[in-house]
Amino acid sequence: MGMTSAQKSGFGATLWDWLTTVDHKKIGILYLAGGGFFFLLGGLEAVIIRIQLISPENNFISAGLYNEMITMHGTTMIFLAAMPILLGLMNFIMPLQIGARDVAFPFLNSLGFWLFLFGGLLLNLSWFTGAPDAGWTNYAPLSIQSPGHGIDFYIMGLQLSGAGTLMGGINFIVTIVLMRAPGMTYMRMPLFTWTTFVASILILFAFPALTVGLFLMMFDRMFGSAFFDAALGGNAIIWQHLFWIFGHPEVYILILPVFGVFSEVFPTFAKKRLFGYTAMVFATFLIAFLGFMVWAHHMFTVGLGPVANSIFAVATMAIAVPTGIKIFNWLFTLWGGSIKINTAMLWSLAFIPSFTIGGMTGVMLASAVADYQYHDTYFVIGHFHYVIVGGTVFGILAGLHYWWPKMFGRYLHEGLGQLSFWTFFVGFHLTFFIQHFLGLMGMPRRYWVFLENQGLDTGNLISTIGAFFMSFGVIVFLINIIYTTIKGKKASGDAWGSGRTLEWAISSPPVHYNFKQLPLVRGLDPLWIEKTEGNKKVTPAEPLDEIHMPNGSILPFIMTIGFTIASYGFIYQTESKYWLIAVYAGMAIALISMLIRSLKDDHGHHISKEELERVGD
Amino acid sequence: MSHDHSIDPKNMPKDPSKATTEGKHKFMGLWIFLGGETVLFACLFGTYLALKDSAAGGPTTQELYGLGLVFLMTVLLLTSSLTSVYAIYHMKNNDFKKMQLWMGITALLGLAFLACEIYEFAHYIHDYGFTFRSSAFGSAFYTLVGFHGGHVVFGLSWIITLMVRNAKRGLDLYNAPKFNTFALYWHFIDVVWVFIFTVVYLMGMVS
Ligand code: HEM
Ligand SMILES: [Cu+2]
């Protein structure tokens, strides 16, 4: 099926191919495109926020719209931009790195993507009738009181996309455990595969807490339950706990994969093996483990008491240790290497000081007593943008520049790449460094306006100017993508000439079954080993034989449509019971698709030996 | 790699559910999924424990709960777990008829459990006016126990679909993993119930 649809041409056939694809590489690209779209949307929202704050008592947007803007910015960036783009990279690259032909559950993979996309679209539909306005953290009772349906869109949108993410996580775990090529022992796995693995474990254990929180919120808002209603004995703090039990691991879901990216980029362009591989693996696990023990550092000012605050403060500070180990290992990897500077490398190098500043302010915030001063001020905004932009976004851009030739067969343009890097890098520090001081001077976060002559004017102006620089950098990057797609230089399989891991052993872009013969992995950095022994190709682990591949399916898409219709019905059934028809109809569509999936056998298809021989390499 | 989904009992391996890569993937996938489900229920238990004494003037745990019915429910569900073990035992020996029989008994026990639960809820609502909306305790109780009940409903639909779908063609390498994953899921539901029995009902009656 995959073959025949690829041979058909025309817009309809192409569209059908993308709607039904279960190929991890195509799904990866879909994630990148979807996440990229939401990144632009979230960026636009950010610029609007900064324009509102460009001068004291500004009137660019109304107070209500401002609340919607900050809520949607945070929610979009975390759930719909950063995480999906990371899932895109993981989807495309990880199976190649372990020498697999697909993921363990291709069907589920596709379902996960569509759920994410439609969850995001549903959330953004709220712009037409009033967006959520209780902050991305959506604290009760504010979120319970919020009129209109904004919060309901938040609940259903995140529930859908969260379910998709959970599926992705489970899929990656099983893939890595069961589908590694012969010889690919755990301690030979590339660091990006390791961090994908650990981030997936975090997804697995963190997302259900959000699921429960969203359900309770949904029941309170739509069905009259009393979880957060103090009048009936409810307790609003439960939301905060559930949100942060999810939320803190979430920030590590965002950062660990890019730790993996840097651990690939540095060795490639320093032409040295990663320093302290084993320590890197264990530091990753330690961060993930501690990441579950620290959620209450977001709640120091709630009044949990000095004992709880102290425990969580110490646990939080402890995370700086494994993080520090990683920073030093990257520096030692660079030490004495024959370093080649390009855009991917620039993003990676810029990450080190930027992220370290974010880690330092993190330790400052972790001091519970001091946090009473910092909490809910611009200091916190400064902190998490240093880690999320200086860490996750820099890492995503490093990863995109690094793997672009692998994914699309063409190099991103270096000149444009460096232009976008420098403008974004300068803009980033202009925007966020000053925010620490604004916060220390007492500027609270999430306020629509600030008063003049309180020492906040210049700082806010600088911050907004920085945001313009960053926007310019993003636009140049977009131009780069367009330019590269049309005229970019073609890349060979080992695009950088110094690739170490298996993805560089196959063509760019890879054929849809990835490996004609599964590779035999003879050590860490298998391609590098083969190259040092003068081999042009990785030793195959099996004779050439027919390949079994999964079939495409439209069912994940239809299921998602069903769930989306049902979600829409849930949101509006509080107004008129007729909307329950949408709930039942949507659920019926989803359940019938599931039933079809269950009843109709699907054995996949085979690519014959003769055909493989015809293709050559 | 040949993917002959043989239905010839002579060619069937000893444990057909794990003879194919797909089968192995499914089984492990469900294990991992249950890890997430554990967190889900842990959060629901946490919420329940935080709110169980917030009856807002309505009936309290001591006034509501009675041991008799929940004890019966526990017996029903535990037994159904055992019968599903028998079913899988017969599956591993490629005895489709016996597997279907024991799976059928499992489903019947599950249905009986569900009937008791529905009766219990109706009893609370009609005789005590204790509803999902009457207090934070009510919301937490029905959500926790109801989520479990929802899992039972899903499990029942799953196994009944599987049994009907495969009734004619018997066991093969393609459907054996499906029965196996169902059984694993069913055990999990059972374990969650043991916790509900202890944390909700037993602790609710003594405190
Ligand atoms: C050494 C490591 C880190 C430490 C010690 C740390 C500590 C903290 C603390 C204590 C807070 C709460 C501040 C407050 O609300 O008063 C906080 C907020 C935050 N941190 Fe970190 N953090 C670290 C790394 C990270 C990383 C790696 C990320 C993301 C990639 C991150 C993202 C965030 C976010 C998003 C918030 C704000 C959430 C909100 O209130 O909206 N942090 N951090
Ligand atoms: Cu945190």
UniProtKB/TrEMBL annotation, chain A:
InterPro entries with a match to the protein in the record: Cyt_c_oxase-like_su1_dom, Cyt_c_oxase-like_su1_sf, Cyt_C_Oxase_1, Cyt_c_Oxase_su1_BS, Cyt_c_oxidase_su1_bac
Transmembrane segments: 29-49, 69-93, 105-128, 153-179, 191-218, 238-262, 274-295, 307-332, 344-366, 378-400, 421-441, 461-483, 554-572, 578-596
SUPFAM superfamilies linked: Cytochrome c oxidase subunit I-like
Main location: membrane
Signal peptide bounds: none
EC number: 7.1.1.9
Broadest EC class assigned to this enzyme: translocase
Pathway(s) the chain acts in: Energy metabolism; oxidative phosphorylation
CDD domains in the record: Ubiquinol_Oxidase_I
Protein topology in the membrane: Multi-pass membrane protein
GO cellular component: plasma membrane
Localization per Swiss-Prot or TrEMBL: Cell membrane
Any single biological process term in GO: respiratory electron transport chain
This protein's record includes keyword Transmembrane helix: yes
Pfam families linked to this entry: COX1
Family label: Belongs to the heme-copper respiratory oxidase family.
Name of the molecule in the record: Cytochrome c oxidase subunit 1
From TrEMBL, chain B:
A single GO cellular-component term on record: plasma membrane
Alphabetized Pfam families for the sequence: COX3
Membrane-topology annotation of the record: Multi-pass membrane protein
Gene (UniProt): ctaE
SUPFAM superfamilies in UniProt: Cytochrome c oxidase subunit III-like (SSF81452)
Subcellular location: Cell membrane
Protein name: Cytochrome c oxidase subunit 3
UniProt-annotated stretches for the region Disordered: 1-20
